[in-house]
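Re: the 330-residue chain
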Amino acid sequence: MNVLIADLPKAQNRDIDYEINLLRSAFPDIETVVYDYDEAKKDEFKALLKNADALLTGLIVMDQDMLQSAEKLRVLSLTSTGYNFVDVPCATEKGIAVVPIGEYCTDEVADHAMSLMLALNRKLKHYVDILDRQHRWLYREAGEIRGLRGQTLGIFGLGKIGRALAVRAQAFGIDVVAYDPYLPPAIAEQVHVKLVSPQYIQENCTIISNHMIQTAEVEDYFNEAFFSGLKRAPIFLNVARGGAVDEAALLDALETGKVSAAGLDVFKDENPDLSQNSFLGRNNVMVTPHAAFYSKESVARAQKISVENIIYYLKGEYEKVNHIVNGVRA
């Protein structure tokens, strides 16, 4: 039995021996291969994938072309909650189970979103620039700052993370509304959030935060039409997936003042060319390197759950697998 542990090098920067030891505790004779993925060497990865019974990854795009090389693959275990980078219909056709992690970093992502919100509202990047680079002790140089109490946050996607952010924001006296057409109103009521239309958020919110699951339906959801409909120059946050945002449209909204500030943890490109990134170097934009999920504890949870998903699946203990999104049971 062969398990391939592969991802972009930045995602491999963890204690992979821990994962290997977990696998070997369940299957003493298992063969494991650890591979740092390079897009320029895709054929090399495909050759390894050809012999794998299980693949553990979180960022490699598993499209139809890639999955055609997976001749023996039974389970694709993801170290993430999202799986928009997987061609699920193709995996299903080939009898490959797609298994993401249901939950491992709710608090971390909500904390990160709240941190970006606080930093942008208080214009901390302005003060860092004024002090570190200009050596000036002038609080008014950052411009007008509004108190958070009484502002309105509009959340797109009121899942676990969206609800966790709502609770945090309410503690600061922020009013919270949300758009989520799939959520029963009773669940929103539990966290004292009113479900509203996207137009309501565009017209009334001073802060907007995206927490929608990335699907084809929400590709470029935040586009020129969305930003042009904003009425209150909100802070815009995206700690979900980069595919939901038309980046050119957001840049234009920042330039024209339709968006006053932006906090971005993700871009469309998971490995962006930072030398050509127009969002960097702006005092009203804070960018983090897809780090919202990260803590010592969340990484440990992700490792344990994703490896256990492989173990349970290969043992045929499907009821113990976290979440088989396409229902494939070998």
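The first strand starts at residue 2 and ends at 7.
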